[in-house]
Task: structure prediction
Amino acid sequence: MRSILVVNPKGGAGKTTLSTNVAGYLAREGERVVIGDLDRQQSAMAWLDFRAEHLPHISGFDARDGWDKGRPKGSTALVIDAPAGIHGKGLSEALKQADKVLVPVQPSLFDMAATEEFLRLVVEEKAVRKQKTFVALVAMRVDPRTRTAAMLERFLSHFELPVLTYLRDTQIYPAAAAEGKTLFDLAPSRTRRELENWQPLVDWIRA
Ligand SMILES: Nc1ncnc2c1ncn2[C@@H]1O[C@H](COP(=O)(O)OP(=O)(O)OP(=O)(O)O)[C@@H](O)[C@H]1O
Ligand SMILES: [Mg+2]
Result:
């Protein structure tokens, strides 16, 4: 089973947006996807409640109760939505569950400052150093042609972690989420441009 952890201790970085969309992509590809929701706020679980029956199925469980309790059997992909403030043992445990780790980062000074120490910790993790766990960054809510994107790129270049893509700041994400949907559940005519931005991310997930 593949497992992807979406994590950044900074609140509002885009973790749940990224988790649900990664889950949506995998479900669309025919995987049996389960979201492990580590957040006390259970946002991903709330989102699943809105997801219509006819859409590619995604299941979920409250991963705070442990990794096996309540987890649906027979899934082929696990996406873990981490909470803000994750650290210490909780972070180590989550990293242990994952073979891939996605870190959404927004191009603001506050976000970058809050993410810096976390990224230093992550690259020091044994599994990451030994390349058992692969870590990559996703720039969130940013147009790659802007000065803020250049600033973010300079910041991220210190970590020797791949920056997979830049996802735009667009109402597509919150609008889809409000209906229990992802980018991959919408008409391609509405999402063509953003799907192009997803391609490198999708390739990394599949690799
Ligand atoms: N690319 C985007 N374009 C527009 N809005 C976005 C984008 N990514 C995230 N958002 C919005 O930003 C807000 C925060 O995103 P999200 O809830 O995914 O972050 P989070 O890291 O899970 O937050 P928390 O730390 O509270 O769990 C949400 O309202 C979401 O709809
Ligand atoms: Mg969240």
The mean pLDDT is 95. The CA atoms of residues 102 and 129 lie 16 Å apart. The chain is about 40% helix and 20% strand.
